Amino acid sequence: MSVAEEFEVANAEYAASFSRGDLLLPLKRKVAIVACMDARLDSARALGLEEGDAYVIRNAGGRAADALRSIIISQQLLGTREIVIVHHTDCRMLTFTDEMIRGKLRSDLGQNADYIAFLPFGDFQQSVLDDIKWLKESLLVLDVPITGFLYDVGTGKIVRVEDNV
Amino acid sequence: MSVAEEFEVANAEYAASFSRGDLLLPLKRKVAIVACMDARLDSARALGLEEGDAYVIRNAGGRAADALRSIIISQQLLGTREIVIVHHTDCRMLTFTDEMIRGKLRSDLGQNADYIAFLPFGDFQQSVLDDIKWLKESLLVLDVPITGFLYDVGTGKIVRVEDNV
Description:
GO molecular function (chains A, B): carbonate dehydratase activity; zinc ion binding
Protein name (chains A, B): Carbonic anhydrase
Number of strands of chain A: 5
Cofactor (chains A, B): Zn(2+)
Oligomer: homodimer
Helix content of chain A: 25-40%
Family (chains A, B): Belongs to the beta-class carbonic anhydrase family.
Binding site for Zn(2+) (chains A, B): 36, 38, 88, 91
């Protein structure tokens, strides 16, 4: 059975007890979450989200720059007025560089990916602060409250990351 | 209380019963999911995901082109070997055009976003097929099984989207 087929089986059970078919946009909580795609992070369970609560944007590292298109759509068309960033401990974004992954694509696939910024980082608290700053400076992003959290994959806890400088 | 503070309260409860701190990469299920950010879709519950199961990439519309950076990282560095795309009914990506949102950013914020492709679409089954085709043709993406689903926000059900042409 492929993973896609396993998803179909699991979904049949989910749909059998589904009771949120009345959910309408706009949202109760006007928030866009930007979180890492990491398999160990279940952003809904970890943040107490119910269906209908929040737009959830996820990518490698939970990087703001790569979420810009979705953030703009969520603010301009869907009415979000708060942003929450979630990065996490033991993130694989700390283990490579642009040069490394571009070199691997060149040698394994014969392809040039030098035009792609893979956005790795060197510190998972600094990356949260960098992304808050990046969003605050972006002229395409509304001036809304932005909170950054670091999720601990070992304990399931989030801790707020604050700039104490 | 801001939404971020509500998340902290909910997370304290989650962390109190957290028992998955032993999760190690690589994954049990070597899959990357590309799903829409829509608030009504809880990708983990709808697909039966446990913490540690799958990389979850989410953006406005669940568009493959905007997930490329994350898909490459998941394949080249994290070992995913299957892709599952999830778009959904009543998607807001059907309600605007690039020209509309660029015009709104120009008039409301005085900013030029003409360089951003917002990737709206006209049909949420065709968008799944388009994204499968786009990934299959991308030379930076490995030749792996790709399955596309349409999630029904009214019933909670996923239905496989297949190219019957």
